[in-house]
Write a structure and sequence with these properties.
About 10% of the residues lie in helices and about 45% in strands. The protein has one helix and nine strands. The chain has one helix at about 5-10; strands at about 15-20, 30-35, 40, 40-45, 45-50, 55-60, 65-70, 75-80, 80-85.
Length: about 90
Amino acid sequence: MNQTIDKLIESSNGRFLTIKFLKDNGEVRTLNGRVGVRWGNVPSSYRRDSKHRKFYLIYVPHKGYRRVNADAVLEVSLDGVTVKNNAVPPEIAA
């Protein structure tokens, strides 16, 4: 898991972001959604942990909630800042 991507997703504070990730079947998928939203009137954290994997819980409008494997994330874009696989952009390097 990339700590820079994790930090960017955590700092989104409910704003829309774009996540590109690799699905279990090898297909690349892109989702536009929000993290940190409420589910069943209970705040959902940006990351859900299971025994073997870490997931981001993302709300995609008109489609519902999606879980994304944190280790499979290839790229995250938020407010014009894009973080790709272990590359730290200069805007957030400090």
